[in-house]
Amino acid sequence: MGVKSAPANPAAINIQRSVLVFGGSFDPVHQGHVALVQHFAKLLKVDEVRLIPAGQPWQKGGLKATAEQRIKMLELAFDEQLSVPYSIDQQEIERAAAQIPSYTVDTLTNMRSQWGNAQSNEEIALILLIGADQFHNFATWKNWQQIFKLAHIVVAARPGYSLQLDTLPSEFAALWQQANGAIEDLKQCSFGKTWLETDLAWDISATRIRDELQQQGQTRETTSLIPRKVLDYLQSQGIYN
């Protein structure tokens, strides 16, 4: 699919729908994931949320939970938790099952192509939500420059995070700075803007939760960080025992 260049006058485009895209391993799903999506769905006033569980992330090791288990955890965690519709997009899991590598640029391109001629892509704002760790690795992603032509990029930073562009690859830092604007800009055009949220109160690591569940089993701290229904499911499945 050909990707259109950013319009000269973004304010002239009438955005009909905005979609928040949030991907991850979700191994396991925790309260931070839910709070993060709730926060940005409300803040950005999106019309829809798409959750994208990873197949087999090429920059990470093996996952403990299966694809089916991670999908179930997302359903248990997010059902009735959002004020807007959400869906679990399984395209990366399906590609992994076919032994096809998944990259964010392919996922977003496929998402754009799904709408086809039914709606102009210029009327749909895609907002890709990533964490600060992903932000620092962004320039290692496949065709990362193309992502700026497919979606807006919003970074959710952990407490105490400070953006230092001089520590990033120069091409990426320049493109990020050029695209950076106010939060209102994300609803004025369909892609190509960046925004950093630095005032978040959550600092939850899925890796730490998983390690603690494996080493210590259920503790008061880990149970407070995992939605109750998800925790019950983890126990019934014995995923991290």
TrEMBL record:
Keyword ATP-binding assigned: yes
GO molecular function, one term: nucleotidyltransferase activity
Functional pathway: Cofactor biosynthesis; NAD(+) biosynthesis; deamido-NAD(+) from nicotinate D-ribonucleotide: step 1/1
Domain Cytidyltransferase-like: 21-211
Enzyme superclass (EC): transferase
Keywords: ATP-binding, NAD, Nucleotide-binding, Nucleotidyltransferase, Pyridine nucleotide biosynthesis, Transferase
Catalytic activity: nicotinate beta-D-ribonucleotide + ATP + H(+) = deamido-NAD(+) + diphosphate
Source domain of life: Bacteria
Family, as annotated: Belongs to the NadD family.
HAMAP family on file: NaMN_adenylyltr
Annotated function: Catalyzes the reversible adenylation of nicotinate mononucleotide (NaMN) to nicotinic acid adenine dinucleotide (NaAD).
NCBIfam families: cyt_tran_rel (TIGR00125), nicotinate (nicotinamide) nucleotide adenylyltransferase (TIGR00482)
UniProt name for this protein: Probable nicotinate-nucleotide adenylyltransferase
Protein's organism: Undibacterium flavidum
